[in-house]
Write a structure and sequence with these properties.
The protein is mainly β. The protein has two domains: about 170 residues, Sandwich (Jelly Rolls); about 250 residues, no CATH class. The chain is elongated. A hairpin with a 2-residue loop joins strand 10 and strand 11.
Length: about 450
Amino acid sequence: MGQLLAVLLGVLVQDAGERVLFDFEKPQDAECWSNLQIADPATADRRIQKEPPATWSLSTENATSGTHSLQITFEGGRWPTLTTALPPEDWMGYHRLTADITVTRPCLVGLSVLQEKSSRKEGWEPVVSRWTKTIFAQPGRNRLSEPLHRNDWQAIIPKLGPVVAFEIFLYAPRRGESIWIDNVRLISKKEKEPETKPEFRVAGTDWVVSGVIELGKKLKDQWTPPVPRTVNEVEAEFRALREKLKAKHPRAVLATFRDGEHGYAGWTDAYFNSHGPDGMTFERSENGGSRETAEIFMRHRSPLHRVDLSSIPAGSEILAARLIICQAGELTSREHNPLEKPTMWVVEPCNRPWVETEVNAYEYAKDKFWKAIGGQYYGDDPDFLPVFLAYGPGQGRVNVWDFTEAVRFWTGGKHDNHGFMLHGDGKDWMGRACYREYPDVRSRPAVLVLYEPP
């Protein structure tokens, strides 16, 4: 009778709460791990390479459950990973995985769960077959907590069979660097995810919106089909505006900021991909700072631009400005055609001093991490400031937006110029936009400014 009662109580505790997956209290809790190695490269993503082997052992440091943790010491590399096999098991009854992770510096740590039919190959389907959670860990103890069934592409999926492996990895570790992990648990209780909706002020207006999609809906009824223009036509129109403004501003100056033109070399840009899920580690860690062309699309797949405006004298009155972005080639997508339906783009200012050859979805510079993937943190000391400095619909091959408020923002003396991200509502898609390295100088991105010196 006593044994039966103990079993029933154990079942009730597991059903109502938690199950320890790893607690690292016994020698065998360390002996079951190994460095991930791919025996057959044909079965894995081409970017998986042999990493410097890590070492690990039970440690009395940084234990959060019991008296031991697992200490892992790395010897460099890009994505060194420890892996362990698990008895095949159906995890559909569990809804969350938690773990305590202790680190000595800001870094990116990840956990992965593989099912029987998970794949390590490259591409969307293989990526979503692996459940992965990454965390921007801060010095000290960090709590990782993530749903196991967030949605169809970040989930343990029944069709992939039982869970068979668990992995721990660290992004770009330093030689001799250690992390500690403990108290890895499965939670059976469902918890509602907190909803956070950032608010963006639209410069030059009194509007506050939840994002580019809401802004597009707000202005949809004002849309008219754009008339395609060339770069020469856009610039001629801006010169005509200068002549018009000269009546009140006789000292107005027209400045063109385009890399490679008139000796200007102050433009920097870099594409990065922060597309989910967390398993997109290779794509998210790539730097696109030397590409001639790359896409410009939604917030998770767009470039950073920065234009040096320091030649404009302090105290100048900014009369007007335009941002020009060109597509490389003609429109090819009927689904994303800005000439046939309303679209919306916005300019979102960056709050970090990113480096063109180092920035990616994890870091704005080497070993300097965003607070959230792709810089999508808008709390205290945000990665990007929650304001749209420019906005408007796409126009096809040559796109031009009013950039007056943006130039005023950076030349007014209150804000450091860390550039901006241009991104859209998904209804327009520049599959290949021209970046500052594009061979045809006239197709490179540009900012035109009319100002009157003090």
